[in-house]
Amino acid sequence: MEHIKKLAAIRESMAERGIDAYIIPSADPHISEYLPDRFKAIAWTSGFTGSAGTLVITQDFAGLWTDARYFVQGREQLVDTGFELVKLKIQHKAEYVEWLSEKFSKGNTVAFDGNLTSLLLANTIKEKLEPLGICVKGSEDLLDAAWEDRPLLPTDAAYLIHPDTTGQDAASKIAAIRHKMEKLHTQAHIISSLDDLAWTLNIRGNDVPCNPVVLGFLIIELERATLFIDNTKLSAADQAELNAAGVDIKPYDSVHPAVQQLAVEQILIDPKRTCYAVYESIPAHVTVLEDTNPSTFLKAVKNPTEVSFSRETMLKDGVALTRFFKWLEENVSKGQLTEISISDQLRTFRAAQDGFVDISFDTIAGYLEHGALPHYKATPKSDATLKPSGLLLVDSGGQYTSGTTDITRVVSLGNITAEEKEDYTIVLKGLIEGSMAVFPQGTRGYQIDAITRRPIWETLRNYGHGTGHGVGFFLNVHEGPQVLNPSNVDVAIEEGMISSIEPGLYREGSYGIRIENLVLSRMLSHNEFGDFMDFETLTICYIATDLVNTALLDQKHIDWLNQYNDWTYNQLAPLLTEEEAAWLKEKTKAI
């Protein structure tokens, strides 16, 4: 009944303000994927805790629009809340806007909070609804007054990391952004997205769980830059270092007045990653250039220092994972392990490694049918006890001062069926095809996605999530601009990008399979036909072979698997105890 009462309070506010439909996106003023507690509005309103979704509330309907990753979770969490699950046909598309255009007409009012809505989304709403005579209001916060004991903004300390780790200092990164600004004939650029800010200034924090970022805005002009942040977060030494790099520091909440006072002719903002409220603060005489943040492209291509540290990080993570899977195998028969307890133990193994800071996202430890929920997170209510039977999916990652990891493995706990082996082998085949891909320079992510899916499609199977995403360097585990999914995203895979390859198959109510490695895109060859690229696999953790049906693999797939597991053993064995190395040697035996 708690969520029903909240829904009633929102509807009452809507009626008082003449609002017929209210939109609540999953976002904060920085359009983040993962949110500080203060901005977890969807969870507070509806009880849905997934990282992607949108609530739309009218007087006679309340719905959660989300994608296939969350269909089961959404259906379960929305029971008795007053909200209904609406399944998106296309991931990330604002399909509820079309629904609103059909439900309402001239004279009706649709509203949202511009602090939680990207400029791109606001424009989508306005361009669809306003021509129909529907009034769109973009500055309506209906939650704050009703949200008792709403969490405050986080106050954890932030800190600068040394260019010896990042391979580039803040001054040179700002200079690279200014070079792009000059090419675009713009005199100011607002950076709202937290990972772009963190990369540009070599600053890290703890304001968002699992993401080492700090809340702030950055305005770069041609002569100076200004960081808007709670300055109590930074030490005097760090503030002095930023000042020396040409960065002034002002209070976090003074960004809107500062934007209003900009004396420039043209300003660059990223419509996907800038909230509508910031856009509304831009003076009317200033021309707004909407384009992707230059830093988004710059940080996606890792420099040699970042690549070198990332390889070291994979070794640390591989040691932790080897110890975890050995411990799991030795203890599962005792009947005391649960999804939550093994997630905690995996964190403990990672935390023992030098430079560990945090996990890079909430660990997905899905046993049996929970593995079929791509973004499952165990709760005390759902926490399943492991038995020596069935499949266990573990998707996890770590944040280290030397890099970010993301890996998924599926292991057998016993009594595996022929169907499970077949599904596992088909997913593995997809991973191998994607990992072995050779492609011309300029290839887009959707082409790699198709290469990876081809052996899965051939069996008339498919999965409802993307094949991969970019990964940051001691930054967000989900990073753009590249993405490996079916969407026609016009971003090439460039040399130096780190991406995931993670095909899967999910049988609702039974089990799920996903196998994931991180890869580095690299230049392979140049000839009369052009430049060609391939991937270097970075992740170092054995891939289980007891689930493989070799009859379904070609010899090239078997060779790749054997070579990968042999390489994994040779990389990790010197860092393990004799007993651990012997265990891993058995796991990596050629098939």
Automatic annotation (TrEMBL):
- In this protein, which residues make up the domain named Peptidase M24? 312-520
User: Creatinase N-terminal domain spans which residues?
Assistant: 7-130
Q: Which UniProt keywords apply?
A: Aminopeptidase, Hydrolase, Metal-binding, Protease
Indicate the enzyme's highest-level EC class: hydrolase
Q: What GO molecular function annotations does the UniProt record carry, in alphabetical order? A: aminopeptidase activity
> Which CDD domains does the entry mention?
APP
Q: Could you tell me which Gene3D superfamilies the record lists for this protein? A: Creatinase/methionine aminopeptidase superfamily, Creatinase/prolidase N-terminal domain
Q: Specify whether Phosphoprotein is a keyword of the entry.
A: no
Q: Name one Pfam family in it.
A: Creatinase_N_2
What Enzyme Commission number does this protein have? Answer: 3.4.11.-
Q: Where is the Peptidase M24 C-terminal domain?
A: 532-591
Q: Which family does it belong to?
A: Belongs to the peptidase M24B family.
Q: What is this protein identified as?
A: Aminopeptidase P family protein
Annotated source species: Sphingobacterium populi
